[in-house]
Structure formats: C-alpha cells, structure tokens
Amino acid sequence: VKEFHKDEIISKTLLGYDNCIKVFDIIKKHKLDPFSNDDQTIYIDEVNEYLKFNEKINGRLAKLGKSRIQIVKDWAKMLDERQDRILKCLVVNRDIENLQKAKLELEKLGSIEVVSSLNDNFEIMKKGVSKGNAVQQLKEIYNISEEQIICIGDGENDISMLEYGGLRVAMGNALDQVKEKADYITKSINDDGVDHIFEEFVL
After folding, report:
1. Full strand arrangement of the beta sheet holding 88-92
2. Cys bridge to 83: 17, 43, 62, 200, which one at CB 3.0-4.6 A?
3. Which conformational region is residue 12 in: left (phi greater than 0), alpha (psi within -120 to 50 degrees), or beta?
C-alpha cells in the first residue's frame, strides 16, 4: 500500500522466498511466462503476451518513474538475490485451459492467494494479501468510516475490496460475480465509467 502524493510505502507484505520457488516451479512446469515485481521493478524473462498487451501502461509507469522492466536470465539467481523484495507474481496467457490447470495447482499450496482480473491471467501473493485488506488498512490509518469509501472494480481480484466500500461499484464490463456484489453498476472502462462515478457521487 503506497501513499500516492508522498510516494511513500505505508504497508507491504512479501510473497516470500519459499513461496516464490514453489510458484515458479509450477509456472514453468506448465510452460507459462511469469513476471514478478517489487515496489520499483518488473522482472520478466522475455517479451511475452503481458508486455505486448500492456505496452502503453508500462510506458506510462516508466515515464512516471514508478516502475521499470528488467529482463531476467536466471530466475533462481534473481529470486535468491531479491528474496526480501518480491511482492507478487503475475501470469498472462491466452491458453485459458492450461492457465486454469496451473491456477488450480497453485491454489493447493495453501500459503498463497491466487486471483484473476480477467480469464487470461492470474496473480499470486502471500496468503492474506488482498485489495480488501489494503482498504481496511487505509481505513484504520486515516481513521475514515465505511461511508466515506468508494470501491470500484471489475475483476475477481476486486471482490474482496468491494466488501469494505460504503459504495460498492462494478464497472459495466465487470464479471457477473463482481456485479452481484455491487450497489451500483457504472459505465464500462472504455466509456469512462470511473469518471462517471466521480461526477455522480463525489463532485
């Protein structure tokens, strides 16, 4: 969790070295391309589907100085050197069937959280880490009430966060299970649904 205006880390939970080793073994077993990150760097072993799909996003992050991409030739060495820094791992792939097999195998580890934002990806974090827990931490740190919180989401990884919002909003393009948790459904992300929420409930 980072304080946006000061660019300061308020709280962070590491994936952990042992988890990293187990996770990467399973990912590579299924011939998937992982990437991982700490609070400054994205580690990736090749120009894969994620990087191509998010070219504009990564470019924007780099310009802001928030993130940079580092090509990894030896994952075991990288994980050993940065075991006290890795926050999470993400996999993006169009082979949905293989992706789901890997996700199910990872979930059996029991020491990690495995959630998706879309059906072509999943992200892996330490057990107990979620957007919902992050919102709860911010609520306590800034002493704000539930009624002052607006949570907006569209993917599986947003469901835990919606539970903490005074106003729970699903994007128009959200998964059905997200819409079921929402108080309000806004326009899709392509139709500036977030801007609509600010105009409707904030400004």
Report:
1. 68-71, 41-44, 34-37, 88-92, 121-126, 112-115
2. 17
3. beta
